[in-house]
Hints:
The chain is of the alpha+beta class. It has 4 helices and 6 strands. It has a domain at 40-138. The radius of gyration is 27 Å and the shape is elongated.
Amino acid sequence: MTTEIDxxxxxxxxxxxxxxxxxxxxFGCLLMLLIITYFVVTSSGFVKGVIxxxxxxxxxxxxxxxxxxxxPFSELRLxxxxxxxxxxEPLLTAAEARVRYSLIDIMRGTIRVNELTLVSPVIELIKNxxxxxxxxxxxxxxxxxxxxxx
Length: 150
């Protein structure tokens, strides 16, 4: 690694081709970051700890599973599925739920599910005397609390 020193102000001139090394190093770091992100996002812990709670919250429910297997381009497999609306009895339990899809089609804007399988599903719909049911929190959307007016 040789550099020439400019005698006028003592600064070093960069070698030609050095920017190529930096660009290659930057590209390599970006590729490594993408690979690490892929493994984190497709892990069972990430799906159970981040994705499923958000899905459950959007349905006003608690969504729990025992294990998750995710192939991001083709399949999602949930074992020990339990959907329980907030403050109500469980609505759905299933030994296994399997969804096969094409991620490429979804990215193009076409939601196409090739297979949806529920193994040993139990749907428990409970209707109360006041007309409410354990399905209401899922179908009605988020409950907005009214603020008392001063």
